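Re: the 215-residue chain
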Amino acid sequence: MQTKKLFRTMCMALYGALVLVSCSAEDGATGPAGPAGPQGEQGPAGADGQDGADGMEGEQGEQGETGAANVIYSGWIDSGFDDNILTSSASFSIAAPLMTDDIINEGVILVFGRSTPAPATNDTDVYALPMVIGAARQQTYYYRAETAGQLDIVMATNEEGEPAGVPFFGEYRYILIPGEQPATVFTLSESGKEQSMDITKMTYEEVLDHLGITE
C-alpha cells in the first residue's frame, strides 16, 4: 500500500516538473531604446596651455628700385670742344655703351648741356639740346645718335666761315629712355585738371623729378 502511494507521489512530482519545463516562456525581442536622458552639467574648464614661441623675424628685403629703374643716364661729362673753336662748326663724341639700336629707333634720347660757371657768380644754367645760344653770332648745339654706343655733340655758327669762338657749354649729360617707357606723362595743372606733357618738352628739373634721377 505504501509502495503504491510512494509511486503515485513520484509520478505526480515528475509530471509537475514536465509541466514547468514545457510552460517556460521564450526570450522576448529587444525593445526600442528609451529616450536620451538630460545632458549632464559641463565640467570645469581646463587650464590654458602655454603660448607658442614667436617665429623668427624675416630679414629685411632690399630697397626697391627707383622710378628710373629702366632709364639709363650718365653723369656730367666734360666738353670735348676746344676752349676757342677756330672753325665755324665742330663736334666730339661721347661714349654711351648702353644706347642700343632699339633705343635709337624706338626710345627717347635726351641730351643736356650745362654752361661754364659765370666768372662773377659761379652760376650755371642747364638747357636741353638742340639749343641756340647768342644773338648776333649764334651758336647752335645739337646731338646726333646714329651709331649704337656713341653720341655726337655738334656745334655750328650761323655765319659760315666764321670761327665759332668760345663754347657756351662746359659739360654734357644724356638720359636714355627705352621704347617701352611712355614718353608722354600726365600731370595736374594749377586748376587741378589732368594734362598730358611730352617728356621731351620738360625742363631739366622736371625730367629729373619725373624719372627719379639724382643730380
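The chain has three helices and eleven strands.
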